[in-house]
Model the fold of this input.
Amino acid sequence: MDRARARARDWAEIQERMLVPLYEAVYDRLEVGPATRLLGLGCGCGLALLMAAGRGAAVCGCDPDAHRLALARERLLPEPRWGGPSHHRARPLLLHANPEDVGSAPFTVVTALDPGGIPAPPAGLATAASLAEPGSPVVLAGWGPSERCATSRVLRIAARLAEPRRPAPHAGLSRRDDLEELAVAAGLRPDGSGRVACPFGYPDMDSALRGLLSTGLFDDAVDATDQRQVEKELTEALHAYRRPDGTVRMENVFRYVIARVPRPASNPRP
Done:
């Protein structure tokens, strides 16, 4: 199994579930249910889509990572067994590599809940928002304040080893108004925000390494040095979060912003 495929599998089996509290908080706030038509950007291996579909929503997901998207298809579009039809989901489930491939679809909710998977601002986000009905919510998520994210200390390793390729992986989404500024740049209207605790918990050090490396936030560091060097320094940093029973736990807070797709301006009467 090549590195990219193994990393996608680790994301699906280890890391993706760490964001479940974020998914639940957003879906509760937006009352995602049978009347919802949801487009998930950076849908990863499909867990957030699966949760929305479990609430009765019709869902569509986009992700540029072909390996993650393949795993999402396995979760959401299983092959029929014993020659009969698949009854896994009764509602439409569509998966694409890019928002541009979705076509015309009147979505009522658009989400970008993977902190590392938001489309390149502002064009990618604007393209996705154009597929939603006027007034629909578009939800963006990012890391919370660094002082409330234990993982931010670990991510500094990625930034240091990757220099001068790019700044810290989460730096662009850690200031208070960054998500709002991204929404405004994409032509959206900010309309509320929230914070959610998303602790990263792992049964052992190996799982912690695999989970964190699966995020893609350490890719530049691996390219600039090598896999062994990154794993060595990451292990050293994680020892501060290792508990007596061998588990690893880091407390984090994520922030999300709800923005609205603008409604067409009404023509004034002559």
The first strand starts at residue 37 and ends at 41. The longest helix spans residues 3-15.
